[in-house]
Amino acid sequence: SAYSVGSSDSFAIRQRIEGYNIADLAWGTVGAQTVTLSFWVRSSLTGNFGGVIINDNHDMNYPFSYNISSANTWTKVSVIITGPTTGTWNVSSGIGLQIIWGLGVGSSVSTSSTGWLSGTSYVAPTGSVSVVGTSGATWYITGVQLEVGTQATPFEFRHYTTELALCQRYYLKIKAT
């Protein structure tokens, strides 16, 4: 059923990227690299949707918007993000940055500003479509890539064994006592 989003509510999908994987972006320095975020998205709703790229401290964020003009049709999205020359970015273990796609965002966690913002933590631009606000709405995403430069390249498919080995670095088994 539809949910009425409160002013401080945020419904979102988050992708956390380890600091080691963003070290070469040099964010927070004069040598900050521009990146392109690309993905395929599909929704039963149309309009302007939104998200944000944010640092681990939640005090540097870049709200972005994208449009889905045709319901239930896969849409390729590319967002060019100029690298921030200020802010603190973790470039070791732990979270380096997060990409957040808002699915229903309240007024106190959205902004009408554009570009890099410091201080307050946002989840999406003001006026973004609220997926959770429509009963039975759907939203799908696939083929997400964040890469240096201003051009989105075709999705990089890695062999299963390579992907498994990368995932095993984070594997932790906890035995119940």
Largest sheet: 5 strands, antiparallel
Mean pLDDT, to the nearest integer, reads: 95
Choose one word for the global shape.
Answer: globular
Termini separation? 41 Å
Number of DSSP helical runs: 1
Order of helices and strands: EEEEEEEEEEH
According to DSSP, the number of beta strands is: 10
Order the strands across the largest sheet as they lie in space: 1-6-3-4-8
Share of helix, binned: under 10%
State Rg: 17 Å
Portion in beta strands: 35-45%
Unreliable spans: none
Provide the structure class: mainly beta
Q: What's the quaternary structure here?
A: single chain
Short structural summary:
This protein is mainly beta. Helix content is 5%, strand content 40%.
Task: Tell me what the structure shows.
The protein is mainly beta and 177 residues long. It contains 1 helix and 10 strands. It has one helix spanning 160-168, and strands spanning 10-18, 35-43, 47-55, 60-68, 75-81, 95-105, 110-111, 117-118, 124-125, 139-148. The strands form 3 sheets. Strands 1-6-3-4-8 form a 5-stranded antiparallel β-sheet, with no helix packed on it. A 3-stranded antiparallel β-sheet has the order 5-2-10, with no helix packed on it. Strand 3 (47-55) and strand 4 form a beta hairpin.
